Amino acid sequence: MNQRTAITAFRLLVLAGCVTPAGWLVWQWYFGDLGAVPGEAVVHFTGKTGLTLLLVTIAFSPAFRVTGWVGFMAARRQIGLWAFFWLVAHMLAWMGLDQYWDWPWIRREMIELPYIRYGVAALALLVPLALTSLRRVQKAMGYRAWHWLHRLIYVSAALGVTHFWILTRADYMLPLIFVAVLTGLIVFRIVDAMLHRR
Amino acid sequence: MARYRYPRIPESEVTPRELFESRRRLLRGGLALGAAAVAPGLLWSREAQAWQGLLEERLATDLPSSELAGGESTTSFQDTTTYNNFYEFGTGKRDPEIYGHRLETDPWSLTIEGDVDKAGTFALEDVLAGQTLEERIYRHRCVEAWSKVIPWVGFPLADLVKRHGPTSRAKYVVFESIHDPDNLRGQRRSIIDWPYREVLRIDEAMHPLTLLAVGLYGEVMPNQSGAPIRLVVPWKYGFKSIKSVVRIALVEERPLSSWEERNPDEYGFYANVNPTVDHPRWTQARERRIGESGRRETLMFNGYGEEVAHLYAGMDLQQHY
């Protein structure tokens, strides 16, 4: 398999990985397997999926550094946009299926509840990243500026993990895994930058 | 065809109760047949079941029933038994339903000890023998801001406590849930300090609304709901209503309850339902009634203020939350 085919295959794999959870969710909904409060199940599932994809997006660059395989860089924009999509779905699910579009309450919870504040901030930070993901914009901005802007993904992920941590009641297994992965990725980034400083 | 649609299913699409149950009977029947084929001994051993058969007989008769939820309609049996917090089985809402069968409930015994005249360990059938069962329809409010209306079957805790002769030293009543990590997968990790413990002040425990429940919807208590015997304190957040009780002790000094020990800032000793005192991380002013869309306003003491407010007269409920 030549390089091009491998990259295309990888991109398709990433696509499948990002879309399959939606299929699973629809399936569960259709067969009534989301339990007594399906709206809540959708909110939780979209949130976990979005946050996971956000961390995977961040992992793509270290994966490239370690393996030297360009496929990771070729698929990074795609997976990042999918993470954004899932997190937007998460927010819309919360607004519609959890808060029933009750705008005064949505506003109030956004202002008053710390975990909602962190979640909103995490998503807001991703908006400029998604907007500048068009290649034309990327080119117009210049790689340096674009690169700096896109480091916001670390801040967004940290806020997202904090959001998940705060709303957890007792079992911290999954939030701990997220913290560990994000910490690992940040440490790798810093060490890598120090080692390769010119 | 979809079995469930959001947010509300038309009545015509709800599986009729009889059908739902006949399917369960069929499944059970199938299992029994299978068991009969391989090991007849298994079937005979069912006769040894101590309390379940007796309770089923009593549930089949007309029990006195009191409606104490302000006429609000009851949550469906299905929703009540498929959306539960019972961390002994896992922290997911469906874990108790999925893994509940691993709890062995028959035979079951209850230890009653501490500052009582008649201490000891008693078989559940003996505990139930002298009690008049009744149905009580109560609101049930979880600290996570969801709620249900549940027709419990049980008897006042006070009846049991009186039977065992509490001494004058008894100031608090401590409850302990079953501890069995081999069968209860949630107990293999220390999410909380197992076994689950809860504590009531003696006057709260003796209050006529405080129930020991052995059933719901006219049926033997399902495992995920706290079989075989659980506490129900309708004016407090659900976590006070400890499930699958194995031990009740009357004591002079107040021990910490499990949630209080885990996080005292968030789960106070009293845990009275109070819309004016928020959980540090979310509002308690509203609640999601399971099976409904939208939110309801949460009622002070979960709507039982007339009956219980006097228990807390003179106390600052912002401080003693």
UniProtKB/TrEMBL annotation, chain A:
GO biological processes: protein repair
Compartments it resides in: Cell membrane; Membrane
Cofactor(s) needed by this chain: FMN; heme b
InterPro entries from the UniProt entry: Fe3_Rdtase_TM_dom, MsrQ-like
Transmembrane segments: 12-31, 51-72, 79-95, 115-134, 146-166, 172-191
GO cellular component labels: plasma membrane
Highest taxon of source: Bacteria
Cofactor note: Binds 1 FMN per subunit.
Domain (Ferric oxidoreductase) ranges: 47-161
Keyword Repressor applies: no
Molecular functions (GO terms): electron transfer activity; FMN binding; heme binding; metal ion binding; oxidoreductase activity, acting on diphenols and related substances as donors
Membrane topology: Multi-pass membrane protein
Pfam families xref list: Ferric_reduct
Keywords: Cell membrane, Electron transport, Flavoprotein, FMN, Heme, Iron, Membrane, Metal-binding, Transmembrane, Transmembrane helix, Transport
Oligomer and partners: Heterodimer of a catalytic subunit (MsrP) and a heme-binding subunit (MsrQ).
Family: Belongs to the MsrQ family.
Function according to Swiss-Prot or TrEMBL: Part of the MsrPQ system that repairs oxidized periplasmic proteins containing methionine sulfoxide residues (Met-O), using respiratory chain electrons. Thus protects these proteins from oxidative-stress damage caused by reactive species of oxygen and chlorine generated by the host defense mechanisms. MsrPQ is essential for the maintenance of envelope integrity under bleach stress, rescuing a wide series of structurally unrelated periplasmic proteins from methionine oxidation.
Protein name: Protein-methionine-sulfoxide reductase heme-binding subunit MsrQ
Species name: Halomonas chromatireducens
Organism lineage: Bacteria, Pseudomonadati, Pseudomonadota, Gammaproteobacteria, Oceanospirillales
From TrEMBL, chain B:
Keywords: Metal-binding, Molybdenum, Oxidoreductase, Signal
Residues noted as binding Mo-molybdopterin in the record, renumbered to the chain: N84, Y87, E88, C142, S177, R230, S241, I242, K243
PTM summary: Predicted to be exported by the Tat system. The position of the signal peptide cleavage has not been experimentally proven.
Top-rank taxon, per record: Bacteria
Signal peptide positions on this chain: none
Annotated family: Belongs to the MsrP family.
Subunit structure: Heterodimer of a catalytic subunit (MsrP) and a heme-binding subunit (MsrQ).
Protein name (record): Protein-methionine-sulfoxide reductase catalytic subunit MsrP
